[in-house]
Design goal:
- The protein is α+β, with helices and mostly antiparallel strands.
- The chain folds into two domains: 61 residues, no CATH class; 96 residues, Jelly Rolls.
- It contains three helices and eight strands; from the N terminus they run ααβββββαβββ.
């Protein structure tokens, strides 16, 4: 074995230094990964400081504000729609006079119903009875009970408990000016 090439060195103390030179740290795969991670962490930290102090990332503050703006615009839309969806008192019948009187027919839908009234006259001699009669009936022939018979002058209101159907207002009055409204809220 003389005259040949020397056997490859295994890095021992054979006298030959045939080791492959090491690459610098930044050229090794692990070094590249660590540098990239360091840059990402540094950028997210810098972005967090300039974005309002949140070190979890600069985009979080922008995301929160857009969510807040979205929820505010949704609330604004809801508040604009709310009056439409909130039931309002709607006048379905009204009658006024100063003596006995019957009104025209009106329809109730079976919703919340109330009667508002205002009686004016001499307190000592004022007599008023306000009836809500079924359509097709007559107070003089069929009789009935008043929804309200105020004993004092002035405004008032009361709840009416009637099923869905057609009705009319009839009043029996003496020595009084009166106004009556039937309102429904569905």
């Amino acid at each position: 074995m003389s005259g040949g090439t020397p056997p490859p060195s295994s890095g021992g103390a054979s006298g030959f230094n045939s080791q492959v030179p090491k690459k610098p740290f930044y050229r090794r795969p692990l070094g590249i990964v660590l540098i990239v991670l360091g840059v990402i962490i540094l950028l997210s930290f810098i972005g967090g400081i300039s974005g309002g102090g949140d070190s979890s990332g600069g985009d979080t503050a922008a995301d929160d504000s857009s969510e807040t703006n979205d929820s505010k615009s949704a609330e604004t839309k809801k508040s604009k729609q709310k009056p439409e969806s909130t039931p309002q008192w709607k006048t379905v019948a009204k009658l006024r006079g100063n003596t006995n009187k019957a009104g025209t027919d009106f329809h109730l839908n079976g919703c919340d119903t109330r009667m508002t009234y205002n009686i004016q006259g001499d307190v000592a001699s004022t007599v008023v009875g306000i009836y809500v009669m079924d359509s097709g009936t007559q107070l003089q022939e069929d009789g009935g009970f008043p929804v309200v018979s105020p004993t004092k002058t002035g405004p008032g209101k009361t709840t009416i408990r009637k099923d869905e159907g057609d009705y009319y207002i009839e009043t029996v009055a003496a020595n009084a000016e009166w106004r009556v409204r039937v309102q429904e809220k569905c």
